[in-house]
Amino acid sequence: MQLLRANALHKDFIALVAELDKELAIIDGDDHAFFSTYNKTVDIHHTVIAYIDTKPVGIGAIKHYDAVTMEVKRMFVLSSFRGQKIANTILDELEKWTVELGYQSCILETSTRLPSAVKLYERTGYTRIDNYGQYIGVPTSICMRKTIKT
Questions:
Q1: What global pTM score does this model have?
Q2: Tens-digit pLDDT profile for the chain (150 aa)?
Q3: Of the CATH numbers 3.40.630.30, 3.40.640.10, 3.40.50.300, 3.40.50.280, which one belongs to the domain with range 2-147?
Q4: 97 CB-near residues (< 8 Å, 6+ apart)
Q5: Which helix (H) or strand (E) holds 97?
């Protein structure tokens, strides 16, 4: 597997975001319009794309949240490549990049409808926190934080 650091304008990132959004539209159902409002890539400048051979198979991104915190966004692996620790590798790279950029922690929001995502984040050291920002009061949202070792 190879990783590429890029930005949200990279064609492979855009293509995989489209696949992610198709999947989330099904999973989120009537809530999709709400969540998609907060999943725009316009303010995302740090993305990681995972390749197997030359095929883009997974993505993730970090976005400035505050002076010490990056928000993990747009984590996705094509269904036919899941179970190979690709998401772990992407998340690890995003955390390394977070430290390189001078931040101390990562936060994220995931869904109760994505139990495998919740397990991934818990396995990699994220702990649940009170829902933040637009996710306050959203019953299907799970927010998490991890302090990144420097």
A1: 0.91
A2: 999 999 999 999 999 999 998 888 877 666 645 555 556 667 899 999 999 999 999 999 999 999 999 999 999 999 999 999 999 999 999 999 999 999 999 999 999 999 999 999 999 999 999 999 989 999 999 999 999 976
A3: 3.40.630.30
A4: 5, 46, 48, 62
A5: helix 86-100
